[in-house]
Amino acid sequence: MDEADAESLKRLFERAIALPVAERDAFLEEVCSDSPELQVELTSLLEAADDADPFFASLANAVLSLPPWPADEAPDASARANRMRAEDEPDPLIGRSVHQYEIQEKLGRGGMGVVYRAYDTSLDRTVALKFLPPYLSADDSATERFLVEARAAAALDHSNVCNVHEIGESEECGRFISMAYYEGETLKQKIERGPLPIDEALDYACQIGAGLDAAHQHGIIHRDIKPGNVIVTPDGTAKVLDFGLAKLADVSLTGTGVRLGTIGYMSPEHLRGEPLDQRADFWSLGVVLYEMLTGELPFRGRPTAVTVHGILHEEPTRPSSLRPEIPAELETVVGRMLAKHPGFRATGAELLNVVCGDTTTQPPAATNTHTAGVWARLRSWRGGVGLGALIVVTVATR
Amino acid sequence: MAKPDLQDSRSSTVTRLLMEVREGSHSAFDELVPLIYEELRGLAHAQRNVWHGTETLDTSALTHEAYLKLAGQAQLDWESRAHFRSIAARAMRQILIDYARAKRTQKRGGEHVRVSLDDLKVADPDAAREYDPVRDQAEALIAVDESLKRLKDRDERQSRVVECRFFGGMTIEDTSAALGVSTATVERDWAMAKAWLYRDMRESLADKGGVEPWMKLTPSR
After folding, report:
1. CA A104, CA A355: separation in Å to the nearest integer?
2. Contacting residues of A for B204, CB less than 8 Å apart
3. Nearest to A238 by CA among A203, A262, A191
4. Residue A249: CB partners within 8 Å, gap ≥ 6?
5. Which three-class secondary structure string do you get for chain B?
6. Residue A256: pLDDT band by 50, 70, 90 thresholds?
7. Would the pLDDT of A386 be above 50?
8. Which one is catalytic: A224, A235, A250, A277?
9. Which of residues 76-105 of B touch A (CB under 8 A)?
10. Burial (0-12, 13-18, 19+ Cβ within 10 Å), A88
11. Which residues make Cβ contacts (< 8 Å) with residue A213, sequence separation at least 6?
12. The pLDDT value given to residue A303
């Protein structure tokens, strides 16, 4: 390729990449009509360009500490839309009994079924009963896999994981899950009233992280961490609900669009349909933390493709531009959790390092046991000195 | 710490070489890189616990700091500083690659450890490989470096843009001043170089018989 060709390649690349993806092929057809080689080259470069940006941004963010955010964008404070509310119509199940449970009140509805408050007559306690929709009750291998994981999740004993009592089945109502009933409200309800105090947001994030660590140690990935799946009890304990449920929904519902409500919390690898590991949960936790701090989702927009594109390719608005008092350290944490590439994403032990500047802990190859320990420590430190003092200590020890 | 007179003579050497670089001298450039490398490495080591995957290197700040130490007293203009930082970016690249190689060796416990098939008998094939961001980052940096060498043979200016922007943390404006081209050219080179590098890394990995986990962001097509 001579110099003139190289220059023309660059110019065409520049013009093509500025076009919407859908229009690029037509553009290339037109301008490369007499040079199929050029067309092939440009097509392949353009394809690589989509993946190259997040790759370099993640790598730079992880290693080189380049500014992770684009130049400040105007915050869009009005975009907190798309709220789902529980429906209020009368429900035929209320007042009926299923096994030993008397169904009392409808608590909510989501993609994964309807939840009721119920009274367990045999053990004399109030429980939450979740009935799975029929497509999650079928007898097939997907359901079997779900049951295996759901039972593993039920065996988790951790103060930040919702306690599952039983997975049962009734002829009339299909499969159901009986779990602890907690007073309090979901994180979603809290966020709807506006951003949370910074130390409160960090506290919930750490608690959710501790619950996730416990599950990850047992090989259970949540896959659907979002504010609606976290209940905060009156004493301030965060309880993560629905471990393992999302897996079956994914298997059964691919392509039906049922997941749209939670797309804003999905990791890039999840959107790409790649196999997930625990790092996907930390992405979602990063989104939740961002939303608790700013009241906004980092990636949002209509149509859904805009949100998807943002998650895959764009950096979110800096949290501190939406809320100036957010400390730089915390902003770094959120940025590192939202690394597009799971390999560069901050998880438990790293988060502690970033938040506390604790240079004495192990590098992030640390084991899960270690990670669980640091979450606990982070919480207790937080309880003892408060975030402000913590950051002062951090700076002083560097 | 350098004695003041030594510091002064080093500083005047740097200033003289910088002038020569601005006049187009390649040999002055090559002479400056090791000088700056030494200074930068000292500064980077001074940051405690440099880059364990948790600590990042603020390369932009480091190159500024090296500039102040090595040429600051001469009160050079903005363009000279941009020149300096573009050379520092080359040194920074070497430092980072040195780190990455050391990390890789350290993590592997030598270059040739292989996981036996028995170790892979787990339900989830992805779980077989332990998550290790430091190793992934080190591999990624080394791959970028190797692809960048190939890019340099095709388009030297593009490779310099990548050095300034990526390894030196320089802005579009500073890069444009250092390389003596328009900001539009820098932006165009930067966008295309990233795409070219990424494609090149993917292809060379495929040649080696597989896609490394750190490239998994690439959807299989």
Report:
1. 44
2. none
3. A203
4. A111, A112, A136, A224, A258, A259
5. CCCHHHHHHHHHHHHHHHHHHHCCCHHHHHHHHHHHHHHHHHHHHHCCCCCCCCCCCCHHHHHHHHHHHHHHHHCCCHHHHHHHHHHHHHHHHHHHHHHHHHHHHHHHCCCCCCCCHHHHCCCCHHHHCCCCHHHHHHHHHHHHHHHHHHHHHHCHHHHHHHHHHHHCCCCHHHHHHHHCCCHHHHHHHHHHHHHHHHHHHHHHHHHCCCCCHHHCCCCCC
6. very low
7. no
8. A224
9. 96
10. exposed
11. A348, A368, A371, A372, A375
12. 57
Identity of the residue numbered B136: D
Report the residue from A56, A272, A345 with minimal CB separation from B219: A272
Single out the residue of A243, A288, A284, A252 nearest to residue A266, CA to CA: A284
Q: Region A129-156: what's the mean pLDDT?
A: 68
What confidence score (pLDDT) does residue B197 get? 95
A79 interfaces chain B, CB cutoff of 8 Å: no
More confident position, A225 or B70: A225
CB contacts under 8 A, A 166-225 vs B, are: 219
Average the pLDDT over each of A40-49, A152-161, B110-119 and give the range with the smallest value.
B110-119
More confident residue, A21 or A110: A21
Instruction: Report d(CA B162, CA B86) in Å as an integer.
Output: 10
User: Is residue A154 very low, low, confident or very high in pLDDT (cuts 50, 70, 90)?
Assistant: confident
Task: Provide the pLDDT confidence category of residue B30 given band limits of 50, 70 and 90.
Answer: confident
Q: Is the pLDDT reported for residue B16 higher than 50?
A: yes
Name the residue type at position B118. D
- The pLDDT value recorded for residue A308 is 76
Residue A224 catalytic? yes
Q: Which of residues 9-48 of B touch A (CB under 8 A)?
A: 48
What ipTM goes with this model?
0.78
Nearest to B84 by CA among B67, B109, B98, B103: B67
Distance of CA B198 to the CA centre of its chain: 15
Residue B197: closest CA among chain A residues belongs to which residue? A52
Output the pLDDT for position B32. 86
Contacts of A52 in chain B (CB under 8 A): 194-195, 197-199
Answer yes or no: are the C-beta atoms of A191 and A205 closer than 8 Å: no
Give the per-residue pLDDT at A59: 77
- How many residues in total does chain B contain? 221
For chains A and B, CB pairs below 8 A equal 147
